[in-house]
Structure formats: structure tokens, C-alpha cells
Amino acid sequence: MAAAAALEAWQAVSRRRRRSAALRPRRREAAAVAAAARDPGAQPEVDGGDVLRRIQEAREDLLISDFWSSALGESDVAPGSVPEETPVTGSCRLKCVCYGVGNFATCIIARNQLAFLLLFLEECQIPRSHCWVYDPLFSQLEIAVLSTLGVVVLSENEEGKRSVYGEPTVFYMLHCGTALYNNLLWRNWSIDALSKMVIVGNSFRGLEERLLTRILQKHYPYVAKILKGREELAFPQTSQYTDVFNDTSVHWFPVQKLTQLSTDTWAFREEPDYQDCEGLEIIRNKTEDPSATDLNPL
Prior knowledge:
The protein is 46% helix and 10% strand. It is an alpha/beta fold. Helix 3 crosses helix 4, helix 4 packs across helix 7 and helix 4 (43-63) crosses helix 8 (140-149).
């Protein structure tokens, strides 16, 4: 049901096409930019206002791009890709969790990814207060900007180990390390929880092709085990956003596929530790692992 809800919301985007409304800056964003312009001596506000302005420009560019129009029409490209489940009612809250968007204040790729997230929230009618965001690399300025935008900035590095808590949830995690996806799947390793989850992130098909089978099964067992229980729809590729959304897919986990997995699949529930995993692309929670290094990206 959750997968149907998220994907139905995505389909609804292509029907609404509320471009004029999305092009208008939100009042708080516009006010922040205006306040910064009135007081050039207040450096933190000036920087924050400039970042907000650049995010708004990224949103506007994205809206008129071939990529955005193609992304909205994804469901038309792959008929039958939406699970044949009863859509959830309007009383069911759809949440969003964003991991690893990066330093959007200085990186244009990260800024475009954040702009897409904001548009996605608007078009799927997910309140920004129902969106939780985290990246261990966020600066204090970026945390302040995100707070101004109205999303919730998490204070703790969850390492992706967040439960859906029985509510349909979209996880937006572009270009993240494989361990982050593995941790997320482990935390929600049940038919009920996984069927309530949609992941927008690295192509699992791509992971399967790039990693040796023994490496995938040893270090990322939950990713390996879910490959036959998921549906995947690749993002469209356009020259303008090649570096931003490359190797990105929408993943969901239909109940009918999950129930076909063996009993042994669900019996294995060991928490990942990655102690002998080389090249681990994740920043560990230092409160849990004092020896962890933060040299690798989330």
C-alpha cells in the first residue's frame, strides 16, 4: 500500500503540472533573502540568503528542464510498474527521509538534488515538517538554511538505521554508500515494513552488476537478499543533469514479491558491522564506534 501511495503521488504530479505555483518562492524563503539584502553587514544572514536564492534558482531551472518533464512521465514509460494495490487513503501520512544530500551551499550537484527533493515534497503534498534530513558533512550554515526551508534536520547520525514505524515512507538517498542502503533494509527487515517503503537512490541493479556476488552477500546481505523482492524504475537521463541523477532509480517492494522469498530470507536478522569491509563508504556514528573514521562519504 505504501509503495502504491508514493507512486500514485508521483503519477499525480504529471497530471497536476502546477508549475506556476512551484516557481513562486515560498514566503519564508523570500523574506530571508530580502532581509539579507537589507542588512549587508550581517554576514551569516547574507550567506544564508545567497544559498536560499541559489536553491530557488535551481528549482526554477529544474522545473523547465527536460529531466523534470521526463521524470514526471516515468509512469507512462513503464506501464504496469505501479503495484496493483489499493492506494492508501488521504488520512495516511506519507513521510520522507533524506540522507547524504551533501554540501549544497558550495556544491551545485548537491544543490540540484536538494531542489529536486523540495519539488518532490511539494508535488506529492508531503509537508516539509514531515521530511527529515541528515548529512554528517552539513555546515552550521546549511543546517540553518534547511531549518529556514522548514524541513527537520536530524541531530544524530543514524547510519541509515531508521524504522518506518508502520508509516509509508520515501527514503531519498542519492549517491550514498551501499552500507547505508543495507542498514536501512536491516532496520526494516519484514514484509510489513518493506512494503511501506520507497527508496529513491542508487540503482540496486547497478550494485548487483558492479559488485562481486560474494562481496555483496558477505558485506551487504540485505541488499543481496532483497534483489528478487523489489521493483526498480530508473530515472531518466538528460545531458543537463547527468552528474546529478546518474545511476538513480526508484525502488519499491511489493507484498506479492516479498511473500515469495524463502523463510530463511526473513530468519536472518543480524545487525551489519562491516568490521572487515574495505572501502566502506559511510561515516560511522562516533558515539557507537569510537574508532570510526569520517574520511569516507555518507
